[in-house]
UniProtKB/TrEMBL annotation:
Residues 872-899 are annotated as: Disordered. Residues 733-836 form the TSCPD domain. Residues 156-691 form the Ribonucleotide reductase large subunit C-terminal domain. The keyword Disulfide bond applies. This is Vitamin B12-dependent ribonucleotide reductase. Pfam families: Ribonuc_red_2_N, Ribonuc_red_lgC, TSCPD. It catalyses: a 2'-deoxyribonucleoside 5'-diphosphate + [thioredoxin]-disulfide + H2O = a ribonucleoside 5'-diphosphate + [thioredoxin]-dithiol. It comes from Phytohabitans maris. Its cofactor is adenosylcob(III)alamin. Its EC number is 1.17.4.1.
Amino acid sequence: MSGEGVSAGKGRATRSATGGLKVERVWTTEGVHPYDEVAWERRDVVMTNWRDGSINFEQRGVEFPEFWSVNAANIVTTKYFRGAVGTPQREWSLKQLVDRVVKTYRAAGEQHGYFATPADAEIFEHELTWMLLHQVFSFNSPVWFNVGTPSPQQVSACFILAVDDSMDSILDWYKEEGLIFKGGSGSGVNLSRIRSSKELLSSGGTASGPVSFMRGADASAGTIKSGGATRRAAKMVILDVDHPDIEEFVQTKAREEDKIRALRDAGFDMDLGGHDIVSVQYQNANNSVRVSDEFMRAVDARDSFALRARLDGSIVEKIDAHGLFHSIAQAAWECADPGLQYDDTINDWHTCPETGRITASNPCSEYLHLDNSSCNLASLNLMKFLRADGGFEVEKFVKSVEFVITAMDISICFADFPTEKIGITTRAYRQLGIGYANLGALLMASGLPYDSDGGRSVAAAITSLMTGTAYRRSAELAGVVGAYEGYARNAEPHKRVMRKHAAANDEIKPSHPVATAIVREATKQWTQGNKIGDKNGWRNSQASVLAPTGTIGLMMDCDTTGVEPDLALVKFKKLVGGGSMQIVNQTVPRALRALGYPEEQVEAIVEHISEHGHVIDAPGLKSEHYAVFDCAMGERSIAPMGHVRMMAAVQPFISGAISKTVNMPESATVEDVEQIYYEGWKLGLKALAIYRDNCKVGQPLSAASSSSSKAAAPAVVTPEPVVEYRPVRKRLPKKRPSETVSFSVGGAEGYLTASSYPDDGLGEVFLKMSKQGSTLAGVMDAFSVAISIGLQYGVPLETFVTKFTNMRFEPAGMTDDPDIRMAASVMDYIFRRLALDFLPYERRAELGIFTATERAAQVAAESEGTLDLAGMAQSAPVSAPVPPPAATDEPAAAKPAPHVGSSTELLEAVIGKAADAPLCFTCGTKMRPAGSCYVCEGCGSTSGCS
């Protein structure tokens, strides 16, 4: 589609005589509806409660394309289908969902004069339908929740609020934030207008200061969260670096971490729902400091820096700039907060400075614009544009961006907003946030390391092309339906920012043939778009962001989210019928072929990765190619500066910012954090946050925790006489207590009978599977006798558990046991069950084996989290994620793995180390990173923006 002054071509639109867009086809075929090109199938979606095995969602006979994964279909069915389950009003087909949304967009586009004729509107509808059906892109979650339903037509996921220095404004902030949380979205706010605790009120008293008011907002967020939401309230709180209360703000969450430790150690109930948890504050927000160039230069020069009064700007006190910067890094090192937002860089790229400064962001820091505004997001699946020969579908990418941007702008015409102020600002400035997912998969499949000049040049080129095309489309739309209301007063600064983007595009130095072709087209888009914009203005004050793409990334079956690299080389895949399996990411063999490896070597390398989880010493793989397969976690993880450099490569081509947390190893120092924050400023980032592994109390225990508590063996002064010990069999009495458990593993049924000594302790097991006289029945009888004799001769049960858990063979998959939802084999299930029934909590914790009740209590840990093993063994568990397995003398492959229910848990099993990821509030499995948030692969829930 194209607008006035641009020649028409396939997939473009021209300004027609009637003033609308003339649309031509890109993906679709004339005379064939997109639904008729796809093979459809019916599926049953049954979601069980991970705590007790009960069914908490069931919808049978839902309809999806055959090529949609089980996970994508499950998430769409449970999260996005509207109507009460079991009623005729309930949606049951992807066709209904897509039609509900796309037909609403078409109708609004026709109503507001976007299309020249009804035929153009129909082509637009079919193109959007095809792209959604084939997972080329997705709107953000609120669109799927609300559009085309009787609910308010909220389409935005990101909100920015404003607070002034008055009690009325502060109370309005509490109310507005609560309404946004109630709707499942998040917001951000800058509190720097509020007078500090070092300033006087007009009455003569001393002001409370913003940190004090943060307590009320935090309590409100926690209350609304606990009132029925299935995820944490997502919010961002920001304070300017020259605010007199900045030092108190920096330390707020670090001090609370100390409080959690102290109260836990004193025996207080620090469970999420416990009586004492209310004393822990500031846990429902991400905190960021807004730093200026002046401050960063003072840090560099080891100079002093002035903190200024809010009312008159007078100097309240001067502090050592580097000392404050070190305090910020120290707090982030301790608890991951605060992050930094670079104020002068943000506002230097601001298209609307005549209206007001950019003071805040949404919770994930990708949306940065005016106060009391919102942004609706959509993301493209980059892997859909990678050709089999390694090239990039430049033309289709350009045309796809045109369609998506047009649809996103149409949505503002009919959208509803949580407050009147947000609605007024958004309609006047029409902020959009197109972005992408699967960048990490694209680079790997192309044979490019994520942390390389080649990888960064491709990423920069694609981002520049996306935003350049989006703004060119916006300029064309301005010629059809008018520029945004605030454009007239901001025309010159808007044009200046467009020139800055174009100049940055000219600075890209492509070091890869694909990047060269993309940059060539991006240059055309910026040149063409700025020429049209000089004449028409622009329809949108903002066009692009890089969001986490959590739930919608799973909907599109993406391997990687946003701008992130691959999490790991192995992943967890759900199968039809409820089972699951470990697979090597499909981008790996594609990358190997792109690098020129023959098929037999590809198979051997993939087999090595499947067994070890990494490429080190893979047969036939050249060491210079190892970097192509570097991931966010695992044996060869990308260095922190590798993440920062990728962010710096794409930032000049993003209207907003990038949702991403830079992970740092546990061994990182405070000085390392300082360096990352300093380099983020020097490299021109707008926002940056770090996370150091295991920095929070609520993270999984390290393997060393159990071993460090063991007392050292006393020194031997004289040699002891050698005594030969022989085991003595302790037989069970004729009458002994026993219990029988029926079980099912992957559809195979059996019975387990366990008998105990009267003074407690397992002494005998019997296993029955298959018919008496069959080979399987005989093998199980013999196995039972061998295990029973071993127990009676004193072999500890935990030795058998260590040896047999995680043993993998068929049948495997789902079980009917609420404590053990998945089993790698019958043996894996049996010895996990025996461990749960006969081993004390402390030993099971070291082995990574927990009951459903214990895991349920651990879910509450994600926000506060402490872990007291002794207390947990006797009472309700305190707040902490699931501990990893303890270190043993066995090789890594033989270590018992935790219950695998997600790619993160699979990665833990492979590398033998726990990942710092929260448990999903809905289904209890470990989430995986998605930008600066987390997403659950099981149900699609996110910890922030969707």
